[in-house]
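Input record (one chain):
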Amino acid sequence: MAILPEISAPERKVPFRQKVLWTAVTLFIYLVCSQVPLYGIMSSDSSDPLYWMRVILASNRGTLMELGITPIITSGMLMQLLAGANLIQVDYSLKEDRSLFNGAQKLLAIVIAFGQAIVSVLNGLYGSPSELGAGICVLLVLQLVVAGIVVVLLDELLQKGYGLGSGISLFIATNVCETILWKALSPSTFNFGSGSEFEGALIALPHLLFTRSNKARALKDAFYRQNLPNVMNLLATVFIFGIIIYLQGFRVELPVTSTRVRGQRATYPIKLFYTSNMPIMLQSALASNVFMISQLVYNRFPDNILVRVLGTWTPYQGTTQMIASGGLAYYMSPPLSITEAIMDPIHTAVYVAFMLTTCAVLSKTWVEISGSSARDVAKQLKDQSMVIVGHRDASVYKELKRVIPTAAAFGGAVLGAVSVLADLLGAIGSGTGILLCTTIIYQYWEMFVRESIETSGEGFAF
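The corresponding structure, as predicted from the sequence alone:
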């Protein structure tokens, strides 16, 4: 693992203002990479296999951030599953084991980026490989792999303590917020036969009211137009943000007391979203990989029965963009509107069941493999000489076993349900994207408050 690029850990605690500075620098690098086009692209008019997932994968088609955070999320998920299934033995209390595990995860992310880059280029996402030539194809692959390594290092930079949070969370929240702001305030204009319309919903509302003679029709178009973002989409987005913030406050507080100091009491909070946004993030990684593989193999072997079972794809409303129209991929993708959900109740029912079940199972699984299971928490309390009030040391684990798995599974299912609701209401950025963005922003707010309290006596000097 010595040949892999690595960010060294800080030798001393990084001041809060420096953390903010490094976080801003990391975000700036990501935004620049999101706008720098790949050199050598001949055409990007072909169908985008990750079109519906790009917002939450922090990727931008045709740029250095083509792959976004897909490699690092996929590698993290695979390594955690391997560790959780005891296929690889990792003792997180040993520095050597942690270093080896993180190095293996980083190497796997680079390998995945390399594989995805080759698949993307050979399947003609940037033009026919025969027309591009071998040299340009190799150059495109190298650009995507190097950009993938940059993403890994930026994430490691923040996670090592130089910045706030993680690169993955920062990039997702930025991408979702950027999408929402663009859909609300975009000055781009389109003409669908009834005159020019602004893409941004908030700009389109006064524009339509001032330029249309039929004010009632103009108001209806501003709130309910189908081909561009509308005001109802924005209201649905705000509504979902409010729901998630409200649900963040739900928790069960277990009273604990010290076995060393008589009378010392505290509470151990178990939140409804016990595993935070990990279930929806893992579900997104799973779905994005299925969609990408399904569309790519369908383009090559459209008549193969196994390929059609995985998913069939058709152009969306006369565009080159393909959407799932059958197979497993179709039932894993959300209905495009409430009308479609009503017209195809089987698809809707299967999708809702898939989201709730997947998020609940992934949440419960993540608890076991991430060091936050009932057994792990019981050990932490024991090491701190703390017990749950009314329970002996031996029964603390049983009480936690009763609460934590239930909170994890139910919290995961609630995340899935809110995501489905957001998709059906047409919230901007997709239900999954809004969930991730809101939980990440909430985490950053908690982090900011905690850091501010810790540094209040130290000042904000660099």
